[in-house]
Amino acid sequence: MHNLFAQSLHVGSTATPEAVQFWFLAPLAVLAALGMLLVKKAVHSALLLAWVMITLAILYIAQGALFLGIVQVVVYTGAVMMLFLFILMLVGVDSSDSLIENIKGQRATSITAAVGIGGLLISLIGRATLNHPATGVESINANGNVQGLANELFTKYVWAFEVVSALLITAALGAMVLAHSQKIKVRTSQRDLSIARFRGDSLATAAGLPGSGIFALHNAVDVPALGPDGLPAQASVSKVLEARGDMIASAPFERNDIQEEEK
Amino acid sequence: MDISNYLYLSAILFTIGAVGVVLRRNAIVVFMCVELMLNAANLAFVTFSRINGDLVGQVASFFTMVVAACEVVVGLAIIVTMYRSRRSASVDDASLLKR
Hints:
The structure holds 2 protein chains of 2 kinds. Chain A has helices at about 15-40, 40-60, 65-90, 105-125, 145-155, 160-180, 190-200, 240-245, 255-260; strands at about 225, 230-235. By secondary structure, chain A is mainly α. In chain A, a hairpin with a 5-residue loop joins strand 1 and strand 2. The radius of gyration of chain A is 33 Å and the shape is elongated. Chain B is mostly helical. Chain B has 3 helices and no strands. Chain B has helices at about 5-25, 25-50, 55-85. Classes of the chains: A mainly alpha, B mainly alpha.
């Protein structure tokens, strides 16, 4: 089927099932990639990218690259996308892009440039010719895809393989160095806290802070406890609730109030 | 169907990834678009491996995957560091050198 003078690259045809699979998956992959570009939330982008990667894995397997297809699923959709989602959770899931252009005309220019690149690539593929007929992957997969790849990797490319392992170690170290943050102050231990309670200004809190809601009219975390003197113990309510304004005002729970109710 | 259709798909995905790198502001999304470009290149490698009938393309694709994994690890660590000091993952906010 090969024609040296053909305008488009005819490099052999595929069987019909593969063609059906391709025409089913390729538009979905392109749509997902476009969606990744257009959706506002980073999490949605990540999920769409995961879909594109799974699609590519299926296409790899269809093209005889069984090992790469499996590795694609394990490494990309498994490890890399999980890492992406993990960092997204760390940085804030709700983080979405601002749609205001900071550089004037950036959007129009970049879309024009992209259409140029795409047109260039596609016309290049269309005009390329092959000086030998396509052989197909069946001949090289005769002894099994994994065995064939291992044969190449551990003979011809063994040096590259070793260098890549060094790169992996360096990357792991680099990530550890970058993600490491130095502690500014020494962490207080339980012993330090205990010493502070007993050697502090007063022994009132030596046994710990009073629990909220104890001896109060209500038994809830946002209600201050009543001390033996009938006054509300402000320390019994979490400072977080106080700062948020979620604390119930203590005035109704004071002793006078109770006495009035008893009358 | 002609095998070269895989190459067209690869070119389209690569272009979409390139647009994403230029257009999006969120550093993580920019990074995901780089991943998409790498994946598109891998698809081209695998297709050429099939056309040429040797495993060189698949080996190249394998190495690309390893390097991409390294790149993701270091890149995400940089994003986390940036987020710690700037409280933002937007690439616009990393402009300290401009002032």
